[in-house]
Design a protein that fits this description.
Largest sheet: 8 strands, mixed
Shape: globular
Strand content: 15-25%
Order of helices and strands: HHHEHEHEEHEHHEEHHE
CATH superfamily of one domain: Vaccinia Virus protein VP39
Radius of gyration: 19 Å
CATH architecture of one domain: 3-Layer(aba) Sandwich
Structural class: alpha/beta
Number of helices: 10
Distance between the termini: 40 Å
Helix content: 25-40%
Length: 293
C-alpha cells in the first residue's frame, strides 16, 4: 500500500515542483501510456541484468505504474519490489495498480528519489526509467541509486536522448515543437540529452559500467506516442508564455493533424533512448552483458 507523503522540509526544492513535466491528470495518463510503449524496452533491459526470484528491486520515480509488474513477475516467488515516487497522487495510483494486478511482494512509498531515507545496500537491483531526464540534479539521484544497491548488485536505467528527433514526412509543427521542447525542459535545468551522459554519471559514483545500448524508436502518428508532441503542448504550453513565446492558442495550432481514418499513417517520429547498467561493486569489467551467449 502507498505510504503517506512526508512533509517537505529544509532548503531543498520540492521534488514534485522541479519535475519538468509537471503534475496533472494529463501527465499521469501520459505516464500510463508510456509504461505500455516502453514495456518491451524495459523487458529487454531486465533481460540484460537478469534479476532472479527471491531478490529485491526498487523502481525509482515509478509514477502511476513504472515497471512494477515486470519486476514482480521476475522476482516472484519470494521477491521484494518497492515502487517509489515523490508525487503522492502517483504513489496512490501505483498502489491501486499493484493491487488491481494482484502483484505479490510489492510496496509503494512516497519519497524523493535523491534522498529516499532507505538503508544503504538494500536492493539487488536499483532501476530508474525516464527519471534522470526530468530532474535538475541527476547526479544526486544516481548517487542514491548506487548507495541503495547491494555490493555486486545492479543499477540500471533507461533514459532518452532527444537532441535528434525526426518526423517523416517533415512537418513544421514537429520542427517547432522540437525547438521549444528543450527550452521548456531547460527552465527546470533538466537535460533532454541525458541518455548519453548516464554512463559517465554511473562512473562518477563508483559504479562499474557493465553495458550501454542505444535504441531508436519509431512511432506512427496514429499511436499515442506519435501524438506525444501534441499532448505535451496541451499540458505544458503555458510554460512558454513568460519568455514572450506565442500565446498558447498559437502553440496549440502547431500540433500535428490527425491521420486519415482507415489508412496506414505515413508520418512517424523517431527519438532515441539508451540502456545503461552498472555494478555496485568493482569486479572485473565484463566484456558482455549477462545472459549473452
Amino acid at each position: 500500500m502507498a505510504e503517506p507523503a512526508q512533509p517537505h522540509t529544509g532548503t531543498r526544492p520540492d521534488p514534485t515542483a522541479v519535475y519538468a513535466l509537471g503534475s496533472s491528470s494529463g501527465e499521469s495518463d501520459r505516464l500510463r501510456r508510456q509504461a505500455e510503449e516502453l514495456a518491451a524496452d524495459s523487458a529487454a533491459l531486465l533481460n540484460r541484468v537478469a534479476p532472479r526470484p527471491g531478490q529485491s528491486a526498487i523502481d525509482l520515480g515509478c509514477g502511476p505504474r513504472g515497471i512494477l509488474d515486470l519486476l514482480a513477475d521476475r522476482l516472484s516467488p519470494g521477491g521484494r519490489v518497492v515502487g517509489l515516487d515523490a508525487d503522492p497522487a502517483h504513489t496512490a495510483m501505483a498502489a491501486e495498480f499493484a493491487a488491481g494486478c494482484g502483484l505479490n511482494g510489492v510496496e509503494i512509498m512516497t519519497a524523493d528519489a535523491s534522498h529516499t531515507g532507505l538503508p544503504s545496500g538494500s536492493f539487488d537491483l536499483v532501476h530508474a526509467r525516464t527519471l534522470l531526464v526530468n530532474v535538475p540534479e541527476p547526479a544526486e539521484v544516481v548517487a542514491e541509486m548506487g548507495r541503495l544497491a547491494k555490493p555486486g548488485g545492479w543499477v540500471a536505467g533507461l533514459e532518452p536522448d532527444v537532441e535528434q528527433a525526426w518526423c517523416y514526412p517533415p512537418h513544421p509543427a514537429f520542427t517547432r515543437i522540437c525547438e521549444i521542447f528543450p527550452v521548456v525542459f531547460g527552465r527546470n535545468e533538466a537535460d533532454v540529452t541525458i541518455g548519453r551522459r548516464v554512463p559517465e554519471l554511473f562512473r562518477r559514483v563508483g559504479l562499474q559500467v557493465a553495458g550501454v545500448e542505444a535504441r531508436v524508436q519509431m512511432y506512427p502518428q496514429a499511436t499515442p506516442a506519435g501524438r506525444s508532441g501534441s499532448t505535451w503542448c496541451a499540458a505544458r504550453g503555458h510554460m512558454c508564455l513568460p519568455w514572450g513565446s506565442p500565446a498558447r492558442r498559437n502553440l496549440m495550432s502547431w500540433t500535428l493533424p490527425p491521420a486519415p481514418p482507415l489508412m496506414t499513417p505515413a508520418r512517424s517520429r523517431c527519438p532515441a533512448c539508451s540502456f545503461s547498467s552498472g555494478r555496485a561493486s568493482r569486479p572485473l569489467r565484463p566484456s558482455r552483458w549477462p545472459g549473452d551467449g
